[in-house]
Write a structure and sequence with these properties.
mainly alpha, about 0% strand
Length: about 100
């Protein structure tokens, strides 16, 4: 009797854990597809083309000192931190 109850309870736990794993994977897939959809939109492409023309106007001496002060690495670090903060705040119970 106890063995059949334990098997039944184990099956329920397995189904519940599988549901949670599937839910997490489907949510991650949805975020990835939303990100790809955003990146393929014309708004982002237009912003990239505009930023390219703006960066072309920066003189070489300014680029030299920006590279010496590691400004590109700082910008990447800040954007990564903001992105991570955005996703962490979307986790239920934490954010």
């Amino acid at each position: 009797m106890l063995s059949s109850f334990a098997d039944w309870f184990l099956d329920i736990l397995k189904d519940g854990m599988q549901f949670l794993v599937d839910l997490i994977l489907q949510t991650a897939t949805w975020f990835w597809e939303a990100l790809l959809g955003l990146m393929s939109s014309n708004v982002v492409v237009g912003m990239i083309q505009t930023s390219e023309s703006l960066f072309a106007q920066i003189p070489q001496s300014v680029w030299f000192f920006m590279n010496m002060c590691q400004v590109p690495m700082g910008i990447v670090s800040i954007l990564s931190a903001y992105t991570l903060r955005f996703f962490i705040r979307r986790i239920p119970g934490i954010g």
